[in-house]
Amino acid sequence: MVLILLTDRTHTGLSDAELVRRDIVHRLAVGDQTHSQLIRTMSKRRVDHPDFESILKEVASFQPPRDSREQGSYRLKIECWVEIEAYYPHYSKNDAEKMTERYQNQRQSTDSKLPPLRPRLLPTYNAIKGLNDMLRSPTLLHYIKTILSYAAFTDSEAKAEENGFSDSTYVISDVLLGHTLNLLYLIATEQDKTHHAAEGPTLLDGSLLYSALAAKQGEDHSVIELLLRLRKSIMEAPDQSSGDHQFVIETVLRHVASRNGFCRDSITATAPQLVPGLPLPSSTETMPLEQTDKEKRKEMMKARQEAILKQMQAQQKMFLMDVDEGDDEVTAAASSSS
User: Fold this and answer.
1) Which of 9, 32, 35 is nearest to 22 (CA)?
2) Over the chain (338 residues), what is each successive 10-residue block's mean pLDDT?
3) Is 200 helix (H, G, I), strand (E, B) or coil?
4) Which one of 39, 96, 127, 298 has the lowest number of neighbouring Cβ atoms within 10 Å?
5) What gap in Å lies between CA 338 and CA 335, rounded to an integer?
């Protein structure tokens, strides 16, 4: 739901003509279609748009029939595949799977410059740009961390029992993990599009948000530590979807390492090959750091973690106070009305 709110612009930013183009592109991404098939699979409002035919010619090429018993069909132009949205809301499960498979095949074709299919924040109306600030919510980050924790320590029933969970209730599905990683991808890569609302006690600014990914409290694991653990598990036991998960994890880790020194230090300790610009040691060398430097760095990291945690705790406390005050006002209003 959060991903749909953040990425779907059906009613929050697209003109009627843009909606027609979007629907045609996504219908043809599922497969080539005849004119009559295309009309049947789209809403009447889109088909009746005065520019429907001209838009169809812009995004699709006509494939003539092979014999007199067939109809010609329309095929999505190569340059239009980049318009595909990872969370197009009008697909059935079967259509979404077909689109994803065809998108991957298109990426693997000769000279393809298609990026991986990832969610992205699209332009929207000024009045509701504050929705993007949801990505700076400490509550959302807490939910993401909880799901990653279950995924990292209970990816099977056997591992769930090994780590103290009594049954498979806490085993995270592959689909949920994929959505969570995509949401974390948005948080890490789309920060420049989230500073539209006024700063408030319940929002994390860019620098603090990046640092919060590396912060941990007590015995808890940080988000970065959980990502590194998931990456290791995937590499040790790859399956059909693990390649995509690993790509997202490594993209997020590389991005935050390039933007924040705290994140960079956390990642370097376990996976230095993911840190941009960091020279890798050979198999016979150690990292060029003296023991005293390592100790100083640990102390700096610990101090930084404590400062971040104090700020996050203060923000959460203020948020809870605001909620309590709101509840008191509602109760008082109800009492006076009665």
Assistant:
1) 9
2) 80 87 96 94 94 96 87 93 92 92 86 83 75 83 89 63 51 83 88 58 71 79 90 79 81 88 85 69 36 50 64 66 56 54
3) coil
4) 127
5) 5
